[in-house]
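Tutorial handout. Part one gives the primary structure; part two gives the three-dimensional structure as tokens.
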Amino acid sequence: MSPSPVPSVHSEGRTRVLEYGDLTVRATPEKSGVRTEVEVANTNDRKATYSVQISIADGKGWTAYDRFWLQDVPPGKTGRDDAVIGSADMGPVPQTPKIYVDEFAPVVDRK
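Part two.
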């Protein structure tokens, strides 16, 4: 069994970046919420679909989440998706968002 990946977080300008094994999440504050980009590298030898749930928080009570489905990612390729998580109605958008991976589940084709 391979060891669990170790999460790594750093900043690229206003964007917070979380790298966790084959998963990379970028969170950039905007007026209407936090633009969240998810990338998954398929390191399997068959195509795979990934269910990824991400929460964005400010550590003071502002928390929002979304689920991403990256479908039929070919072997050796990277699946990408993005969405704005949260809204200005929830209060001030976190300017240094905290990123949490609530679920990261690959489903590899059995064919």
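Part three, for discussion. The chain has no helices and eight strands. The chain has a mean pLDDT of 93.
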